[in-house]
Amino acid sequence: MSAQPLQLGSVLAHEEAKLLACVHCGLCLEACPTYVQTGDENDGPRGRIYLMRAVEEGRLGADAPTFARHINRCLGCRACESACPAGVEYGQLLEAARADLTNSRREHGAADRLLHFALRHIWPHPARLRLAFAVARTLRDTGLVRLLRATHLPHLLAPRFDLALALLDGSRAVRLTEQEREPTTQPASANITTSRALLFDGCVTEGLFARVNRATARVLALNGCATERPRGQVCCGALHAHGGDIEGARRLARQNIEAFADDNAAPIVTNAGGCGAMLAAYAHLLAADPQYAERAHSFSARVRDISQQLSVVSLRTGAPINAPVTTYDASCHLLHGQRAASEPLDMLRAIPDLEFVPLTGSDVCCGGAGVYNLIETELSMRVLDEKLKHIAETGATLVMTSNPGCHMQLSAGARLKGLRLRVCHPIELLEASYRKLAEKSSDAGQETS
Amino acid sequence: MRKVGYAQSGRVVYHQSAESLSFFFPRVLPVDKLLNNLCTIVGSDSVIADADELLVYECDGLTQHKHRPRAVVFPQSTEETAAVVKELARARVSFAPRGAGTGLSGGALALDQGVIIELARMRRVLKVDVENRLAIVQTGLVNAQLSRAVAAHGLHYVPDPSSGASCTIGGNIAENAGGIHCLKYGTTTDHILGVRVVLSDGSVVDLGGTGAEAPGYDLLGVFVGSEGTFGIATEATVRLVPLPLAVRTLLADFADVNDASRAVSALIAAGLMPAALEMLDGATIRAVEASVFAAGLPPDAEAALLIELDGLEAGLDTEAAHAEAICRKHGARHVRHAKDEQERKQLWAARKGAFGAMGRLAPDLMLQDAVVPRSRLPEVLADIYRIGAHYQLRLANVFHAGDGNLHPLICFDLRDKDEVRRVEAASKEIVQTCVEAGGTITGEHGVGLDKKAYLPLIFSDDDLAAMLQVRAAFDPTGLCNPGKIIPTPRGCGEARIIATSQAQTPAQQTMPTANAMRPSVTIQTPAHNAFAPDAAQRQLAALVGDKNIALACDEQIESTQHALVVAPANVAEARACMCLAARDGWTVAPAGACTWLDAGNPLTRADIFITTRRMTRLIRHEPADLVATVEAGMNFAAFNETTSRAGQWLPLDPPDDGRASVGGVVATGMGGAQSFAYGQPRGFVLGLRALLADGRQIKAGGNVVKNVAGYDLCKLFNGSYGTLGLITELTFKLRPRPAHEATIIVRAPDVETLINCARQLRAGQFLPVALELLAPALATTIGAPGATDQFALLVRFAGNDASVADQAARARVLFKSARTVSLELVEPDAHLWRALAAQPLRTDWQLIWRASVRPSNLSALLVALHQAQRDHVESLSWHAGLGDGRLRVMQTIETDAPHVVATFTSLRDTAHKLGGALIVERAPDDLRRVSDAWGLSAANARLMRSLKQQLDPHELLAPGRFFASEVRG
Ligand SMILES: Cc1cc2nc3c(=O)[nH]c(=O)nc-3n(C[C@H](O)[C@H](O)[C@H](O)COP(=O)(O)OP(=O)(O)OC[C@H]3O[C@@H](n4cnc5c(N)ncnc54)[C@H](O)[C@@H]3O)c2cc1C
Ligand code: SF4
Ligand code: SF4
After folding, report:
1. Is residue B554 domain-shared with residue B673, that is, in the same domain?
2. Can you tell me the distance from the alpha carbon of A223 to that of A310, in angstroms, rounded to the nearest whole number?
3. Does residue B354 fall inside a structural domain?
4. What is the mean pLDDT of chain B?
5. Total number of domains constituting chain A
6. Among B7, B63, B74, whose Cβ lies nearest the Cβ of A39?
């Protein structure tokens, strides 16, 4: 069990001021994907805050099923935060509520217990985590997962199991261009290095999307930014914090702060919206920790998404890559947590002739939300359906998104629905464009020689 | 009054549900029988009955009032809603409709363990009709989503409350929500064309929706703003408006609030009609600038005006320059013009985010909502600041200045009990101040639970009783959102009490007399008594003087013999006459200038006609308010002449040959050609006083342009034709008189060509104020130039010189390419329109009727008309409003009555099939006896009858005009 005392409503009680900031105006309602789906005030931000307040005031038990149900049904996408004129910090309230839920004497379901087991006994240990991801990759890359899904057995057995497999399969690399053969030439780094940055790997990204991490490093290098991947870095703790294990998250946060302490001036660059928002929230997470509060504060101030980092340099232009019609779906935590709205799109301007169609509701969650899709599957799928409908309207067959969870959710959706839709990280596309450029210049080089 | 924030001390402890819900399981099925039945109707996942889950439904946007409902039901359609309500009616359980719960008056709460009917799952757009510029939507649709859904067609839904991102169309209808753009474009009531309503017994009725005009009382008008106490609106037909062609947004900042408020009055008095005119005071500016909404407002300013002008590009810069000059003249330090759409959006975001930005300054905020006449803004604002200072409160003002709609915001901390007391005292004083300045207690947030106690500040017991009677007509069961709006000792069932008591006991009351010296007598109201003209004449003469009584035959009134026409000089005399009639059981036909006493079905009996023709005083006209109050008998033309001296007018052209009274215009509710651009008379009545059948005098509405206190009974009298009361006084919202008017007349040998011309015009960048199509002979009669055998299209433009010239020039080019025969520009053009309006009053027409359909259906109706009248085309004349779907047909009758009745009936069928209506304006008596003048739907007729039954139980007023009398003398 966590080190927290079993006092009901204790974590929320600390957040009274944040609860009071909500003036109950309801301007956040339509921003909330779960409210839009159900129309139930309990499933909207204002209602959830009301429930939290009821717990904080002792009108409702932290172990009340209603509290658990509706706090769990929250995607944690923080769209409500961007909509709120009063500046309510919903994300932090949610974490407090989840912590109170976890600490309450409520009986936890099987899925919940499984999740917490994994978070406690696998995630904090890099070796175990690496092993787990290695197994997952093997299943994925050998095609076993696909084979299994093709039998329709998983679906018959339990649709949720099928979804889990589809999610895993959805993390595979995809072809980014309409060309027969993708460019393979590695772009050379820039001649002059003008800046440096520390890269945050992220556990799922490094486990299933290592290609995105490599692409990030290469694009930075090409734009004159030397990078380093500090050793000793661990999972950002987002899954823990969102799952109610605040202490677990704090432990990981301290480890990361130590790991990135060597170079205190360099920005910390991430490519996963979820991780980035979490790292940026360390300041709040450790605010009450006398030893770490200040360090956490300066750590958080250094965190940038790759798109934000690139927005301050004059970005090199790549080569046209003949990509299919493309659209972009914002990662909620990138958008609402890190407030990176235009930067990811600006970054794509470096790709000439890209046929880009904006996505209606790109600021709305896709329903992935970490492990939400495996727990609140029904609601998650309803939110996802809406998203896929909008993607279909764009006519795009390639959708970009900047978070592994969203990435897998979208491509799982495409798989479950049999849609012709590929998913990638925007940095992958930019890197492909740079590779094309390198290929061209090396072709040119060969011709002249 | 609004309080947001931390729940008051006395923490309520609710019991918790015992069931331990498994994580993955759906909700537990309710055991209660009623709940079971509700689940059968809507499905168990559409019913919430768990006590903990109901917690969030205990309040709306105003957290001060808390009532936990018994259950929440989520219907998905009108049918489901009706079934749910029927079930509740059977179980005698009350209910409250709810939209998004952003209301600020505690309206969407279910008291006494009632059930909330939540419309959030009814959010479909059912139809977008681009040509007729309307949409049909389920009422749970969110306001902003509606505009988003139609933006691709270049249209939008105008009312834009600051809560538009989440509030629902149903909630907007219920509250008659306003917004930033209602100064020029009106509030919700001006943008709702029809609603489908589930009444408290589960029956479904369509109100309005039949085109420009629905026959009978304006039930739709009184429903809008009824705060969910008349029934549940499940579907709405809403008006869509083209996105503004051109916009200029100005920000003027002042060092003194008073200067800014004087500038507001000056802008209006100068005849500018901004689309929006908002004010932020210094405290607000600084709060906004410190928030994410910062828009570069000067932090040292004490006030800023945000002004938006829209319209045609031509002439708009001149208007903007004019507005700037006025601001500067009144002390503006800088006037900034938004240079692009982004800057404009930023400025408006700053305005809309002001409330939230202020929210960051203190744990709690109290947002008041009151309206004062615009011209009183400087002194009222000063008073408000004085009150704030007196109670040592931090107070800011950010509000709809153009409407005089104040929103004082008070920052406080609910945990500080002393401060809370001061806030309460201050806000009461503020409301009182506004009322004393001639204003009202709420302009857009509604009364709900929160302002019930303030209602008596502006309404008398009689006014409130009349409101309760109207409520009882809509909701005889008393189950529909009880306990809201009208203060009563008991929380619920009040309407029911009225419903039964009214019908049985005759009204006991004191009879006021014209002469105060005479002792008052207590009278009883018996049902129709025999009428002895001679005795009556003597009694009435004592009240109004001998020479003000005449025999009806003198006035050429056919339908009644021996009737007397009484002309009181003022309200007191009129009231005395009404009381006398009520006491003696005489029937009364209220009248204005007596130009049109035979409207509707024949009166079954009319003992006296009370005419307002001697009541012609102009009581008040304040140009800076754009408001005028007059006695109902004032001549309509004279009224417009008077107001036009201040550059203002009532932009209506009802049937009028120069004699019509303003009261008559309202009682018939008829507009004319310009209603396409300006709307019907219903939109211009801000307030009225009327005498009811029992002699009670009531007041409805008020003197300010925005007012949602109590029910909008003004609407009910609109189109009531004297059957509900005698209107004695009217307060109108005026408009700046356009600087320039001109009419283009296009003539062509066929109707289709002209209809096409009109269609092209509407699709282009034009803002015509009238688009009237005339039969050839009629066009010639009114003096339109061109060949006498050709149809004519009259297109009127109005506005500043540049915009009229620009439109006229472009229209010429547009029409030249069409196959038109002639094209003339007429200016000045007033004589044309006056002549057209006078047509229906010409005595040589024997049969006049008008139909109202969607504009796109007009040609179908015209075809039907020409087919039916093939052989009698010469006897027939007509004109049609192509913009709003009106058709008026005037004819002489040469053939036999049965043929006329048959064609007429078939045309009415056609109109009904097209979703419209057909009303007989005038017909010979024999025809009136065999065919109904109105063609009301059964459901509407039922509601109208019960309204009549409530307000005039003995059918003393114009009996038979709508329905054959049920009560016989
Ligand atoms: C920040 C903020 C800004 C606001 N700004 C404005 C503003 O600028 N202008 C303005 O006018 N108001 C404003 N309001 C008030 C509020 O948003 C409006 O009154 C809105 O119309 C309420 O809509 P709703 O869907 O939330 O209705 P609810 O709050 O759910 O209900 C309001 C009332 O309508 C009734 N009702 C709801 N739906 C129906 C239906 N389908 N049929 C019959 N009755 C129904 C309810 O019973 C209740 O009495 C503001 C509120 C907030 C919080
Ligand atoms: S969270 Fe913000 S937007 Fe939502 S109800 Fe509270 S104050 Fe309003
Ligand atoms: S975080 Fe997302 S799902 Fe949760 S309340 Fe906010 S908007 Fe809704």
Report:
1. yes
2. 8
3. no
4. 87
5. 2
6. B74
Q: Return the residue matching tokens 């029809």.
A: B194
Check whether residue B209 and residue B228 sit in a common domain.
yes
Q: Can you give the CATH number for the domain in which A84 is found?
A: 1.10.1060.10
**How is A311-364 classified by DSSP, letter by letter?**
HTS-PPP-----PPSEEE---HIIIIIS--SSHHHHHHTTSTT--B---TTTTS
Q: Which domain holds residue B446?
A: 365-457
pLDDT of amino acid B553: 63
List the domain range (segments joined by +) for residue A41: 6-104
Distance (Å, whole) CA B347 – CA B168: 25
Q: Which residues of A touch B144 (CB under 8 A)?
A: 30
Q: Is any Cβ of chain A less than 8 angstroms from the Cβ of B57?
A: yes
Q: Is any Cβ of chain A less than 8 angstroms from the Cβ of B355?
A: yes
What is the rounded CA–CA span in Å between residue B372 and residue B437?
6
Rounded Cα distance between B402 and A344, Å, is 42
Q: Do A86 and B360 make contact, defined as CB atoms within 8 angstroms? A: yes
- Give the integer Cα–Cα distance in Å for B546 and B548: 5
Sign of CA pseudo-dihedral A151, A155, A160, A166: positive
B646, B709, B714: which is closest to B680 by C-alpha? B714
Q: Is B195 left (phi over 0), alpha (psi -120 to 50) or beta?
A: beta
The pair of three-digit structure tokens given for residue B307, joined into one six-digit string: 């002004």
**Ligand 1 centre and the CA of B102: distance in Å?**
5
Per-residue pLDDT tens over the stretch B11-67: 222 233 333 333 333 344 445 889 999 999 999 999 999 999 999 999 999 888 899
d(CA B167, ligand 1 centre) in Å? 6
The pTM for the full model equals: 0.90
- Quick one: tokens of B849? 């009727």
- Picking from B788, B785, B789, B791, the residue whose alpha carbon sits closest to that of residue B772 is B791
Residue with token string 């054959």: B964
A46: which 2 tokens?
């204002």
Residues of B whose CB is below 8 A from A21: 359-360, 363
pLDDT value of position B529: 67
Q: What is the CATH number of the domain that holds B49?
A: 3.30.43.10
Q: Give the residue from A88, A104, A120 where a domain finishes.
A: A104
Tell me the best of B167, B176, B369, B484 to mutate to test the pocket of ligand 1, counting ligand atoms within 8 Å of each CB and taking the most.
Answer: B167
Nearest residue, CB atoms, B20 vs list A28, A58, A107: A107
Instruction: Supply the pLDDT for residue A193.
Output: 76
Q: Is residue A131 part of a domain?
A: no
Test the B interface: residue of A24, A43, A116 with most B CBs within 10 Å: A24
- Tell me the nearest-neighbour CA distance from A106 into chain B, angstroms: 9
Residue closest via CA to ligand 2's atom 3 equals A84
Point out the domain boundary residue: B209, B242, B275.
B242
- Provide the ipTM: 0.89
Q: From the CA of B189, how far away is ligand 1's center (Å)?
A: 14
Residue B247 belongs to some domain of the structure: no
Q: For residues B606-625, b (16+ Cβ closer than 10 Å) or e, as one string?
A: bbbbbbbbbbbeeeebbbbb
Q: Is B69 in the pocket of ligand 1 (CB under 6 A)?
A: no
- Tokens 């114009």 appear where? B958
d(CA A103, CA A97): 10
Nearest protein CA to atom 9 of ligand 1, as residue:
B161
Q: Take residue B604 and report the two structure tokens written for it.
A: 């079954």
pLDDT of residue B876: 85
In a domain, A93, yes or no: yes
pLDDT band at A183 (very low <50, low <70, confident <90, very high): low
In a domain, A195, yes or no: no
